[in-house]
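Hi R.,

Here's the input for the zinc ion complex you asked about:
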Amino acid sequence: MRPFLLPAALVCGALAAPAFVLSQSAPGDQVSPRAKQLHDRAIVVDTHDDTTQRLVFDKTFDIAARNKNGNIDVPRMKEGGLDALFFSIWVPSDVTGPPAVKRALDQIDAVHEAARLHPGELLLATTAADVRRAAAEHKIAALMGMEGGHMIDDDMRLLRDYAALGVRYMTLTHFKNNNWADSSTDKPAHNGLTAFGRDVVREMNRLGVMVDISHVADKTFSDALAITTAPVIASHSSCRAIANHPRNMTDDMLRAVAKNGGVVMINYHAGFLSEEFRVASEKRSGSIVESMNAMSKRCGGNEACTTMESERIDHEAMAKGELPKVTWDKIVEHIDHAVKVAGADHVGLGSDFDGATMPLGMEDASKLPKITDALLTRGYAEKDVEKILGGNILRVMEQVERAAQSAERTPKTPR
Ligand SMILES: [Zn+2]
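And here is the predicted structure with zinc ion in place:
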């Protein structure tokens, strides 16, 4: 159903009701009892999170304990009613060949180990049914998505191995092109997907690995949609009509994903939410560049350090007025735009927690009920909010699982 704006009197009435206050809350964190109830009832799924880098690089990080830094850990996920999280398996685009494979396997192992070490809190999940079971057991479903097709090292067997280890989506590229697909943030080299790239999409369909079109060039996007026999996802992309970044989706792309039956999961990164922030951060000068350079030198190859320090530097720059302040309600603006263009059945949440610069007011997963509250205030029906929070991605997972089961019977397996 199409959302509508409530008359002001009704909105004020909702705000006048006694508000539920998030623990460790800041002014503006209050949500209505109705929003709290709906949020608790819904299965909330986030399809993109980079905490895996902390699991690998930060030996002091305990995901089961409340941490002072970062965006994600079990206590804050529970507080924010986050029921399922896709841990990203990510290696920078310039790491290729066997070193990329080794690093991907290290990360997959780290997610498996986190679930093994915290069986009371986390449940390793690979299907929509697993996610529902975890929610019923009051555990957080830990899923895995791969960010960048370069990690298959141009070898279909590795794609099958990753799938066997539990990886359930793969962005075809990361920031740079690989040998078979063009990225949205690189110069086109293949005019979209090569013949091998098209076979990768077919094999992902057969394996039940969701085809993720976040990060890909617009032509790669349309090539992938032309081939896939299952719905696709954008695991962490926002709307280009609001912030003109090539990582975001145009309105035509949003409509194409809706037609395909897929889902676009809105990214919370300040530079993808706000056009002003994007333009200003691309023009960064003087002290910010110096601090960024000093940071990457300090962090070396430690990707957990790099992303967390980048966020700290961006937030400092916002506080000093060197970058525009981006607030969390921008997330809701993007959700609302995507819903208006693609429909409420095709939008979800893909935060990029622990891998990006969160907007002010969405400092960690504990703040998520504010999104539910804001959607209700905008007049969204409860059933549509439930779909956006997780129902849509669960539906797509089930469709992809069914498509894989019927494709299993086809004898031809590309190599
Ligand atoms: Zn990404």
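One thing worth noting: Residues 147, 215, 236 surround zinc ion (CB under 6 Å).

Cheers,
M.
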